[in-house]
From TrEMBL:
InterPro entries according to UniProt: ATP_PFK (IPR022953), Phosphofructokinase_dom (IPR000023), PKF_sf (IPR035966)
Domain of life: Eukaryota
Organism: Myxobolus squamalis
GO molecular function: 6-phosphofructokinase activity; AMP binding; ATP binding; fructose-6-phosphate binding; identical protein binding; metal ion binding; monosaccharide binding
Gene3D superfamilies: 3.40.50.450
Pathway connected to this protein: Carbohydrate degradation; glycolysis; D-glyceraldehyde 3-phosphate and glycerone phosphate from D-glucose: step 3/4
Cell location: Cytoplasm
Cofactor: Mg(2+)
Keyword ATP-binding among record annotations: yes
Pfam families membership: PFK (PF00365)
Protein name: 6-phosphofructokinase
E.C. designation(s): 2.7.1.11
Record-level GO BP terms: canonical glycolysis; fructose 1,6-bisphosphate metabolic process; fructose 6-phosphate metabolic process
Amino acid sequence: MMNENTYDFTGKKVAILTSGGDSQGMNSAIRSCSRMVLSLGARIFPVKWGYQGLVDGGENIKEYFWNDFSKIIHLGGTILGSARCKDFMKEEGRQKACLNMVLHGINHLVIIGGDGSLTGADIFRSEWSNHLSALYDQGKISLSQKNELHNLSIVGMVGSIDNDFCGTDMTIGCDSALHRIIECVDSIITTAESHRRGFVIEIMGRHAGYLALSSGLSVGADFVFIPEFP
């Protein structure tokens, strides 16, 4: 029996998209999140090509079912595709995205992406009620749609190989990136030793030194330089 304080997802519609750079594990996240939504009795609407698909609408937003998420857990990248979206950076573009979601009856959104993608989602959430009012005034949505979908709920899953988000042990894609770095450095070490040369290897991570530090410890590097202690 469902607890009276538990939210009832039956019949609710949830959109899910991937945005920004792709990272290993995104498909696993899509699969697990979407099947959890379905197991709760809700409906899932994956969005192709990230925020661009949300802005363009049409065939980019389609309902998926349980078997549509089979045989993807082992694949790299993202089956939904990802794209940078300049339109979503503008209020006009976000209003188009809002309209496309409302027309599908969706007011729950899951975003798998990095810092920029999640920041954009938070801005979208904060503007949601204003977009609904504007769309209603323009005659593009009905009063019942405006009232029923008055609130936008968002969930952000950090897809970043940099492991640069606090509050989570490991971001999506980080572990795979670390393994690839170690494999590459192991291959380079033999050449360095054969020629008595020192190699400087630059690792991705931007402002976070997790990958550099962890890979440096794993391969026995002599020196490790990270942004936290330049």
